[in-house]
Amino acid sequence: MHIAFPYRLDGRGRTADADLDTHVRHLIEQVLFTAPGERVNRPTFGTGLGQLVFAPNSSELATATQFLVQGALQQWLGDLIQVEAVETHSEEASLQVTVRYVVRRTQQRQTAQFSREL
User: Fold this and answer.
1) pTM of the model
2) Which of 31, 51, 74, 82 has the most CB atoms within 10 Å of its CB?
3) 50 vs 24, more confident
């Protein structure tokens, strides 16, 4: 088992755990919504998606964002997942990201949606 994210205690007062699929989903969420420079010992960790909400929408920006996210996921989680597709959508102060991936250990295809109000 893996430690749940965000860190919390379970009903027994112990560290909460998560199964592999949930753990991988939590790792993806951390990569997506961590800004580069936010982690002290890993200054390049993250994607900076939070700034997407404030950028003007265009097809070029959407394409660049998809490549940015795919690259970050491959760099930081490439040993755990194979990214098949990334879709982003921003509207006013919210951001929605859909990631389709394969968990390498189980070869299971997964689709995860993440949203963030900024």
Assistant:
1) 0.82
2) 31
3) 24
